[in-house]
Amino acid sequence: MRLSKENCVLLVIDMQEKLCKVMKELDRTTKNIRLLIEAANEFNMPIVYTEQYPKGLGETIEPLKSLLEKYNAKRFDKMSFSALKIDEIKNYLENLGKKTVILTGIESHICVLSTAIDLKDNGYEVVVASDATTSREKEFYDTAMNFYNGQSIPVIPAETIVFYWLEFAGTDSFKKLQRIILGRE
Questions:
Q1: Contact between residue 112 and residue 133 where contact means Cβ atoms under 8 Å apart
Q2: Domains and CATH numbers, the chain
Q3: pLDDT of residue 155
Q4: How many of the other CB atoms lie within 10 Å of CB of 132?
Q5: Is 0.90 surpassed by the pTM of this model?
């Protein structure tokens, strides 16, 4: 698998107000999703995000919501656990023509996992950003990570993905994203 900038799409699953209130490692997860959003935008990659039953679970949390809107990310509502059960999302991803999906969001063992399986079954290469997803309980998170590994779905840190996309140090993109990684922006 190659994480080619030209062939990736970033998918952020259900980072919503009521769900986030009960998540472990929320600050870490949000920080790393932000990094991936910034990097995807820097490299002109499509960004897609979902909201599970927003009427009941609220909207995407800040600062992610403002950032996603700023970069014209495509938003979808869903009631299914897997994003690919929604024809509008499935068709949108197909029309992008990208074959690698970087998966982030919550919960690692429910909506992220269901989406990962369906993406893989539909011919996509899936990469789970390990530190840009979380669950209510550490046990659920750990079980999901073990499942991904058993399904040959790569699980790697967001920073690793970003540095792979960067390819070289010293570029303007490197300097911009390094400031975010180091918490200076």
A1: yes
A2: 5-181 (3.40.50.850)
A3: 97
A4: 29
A5: yes
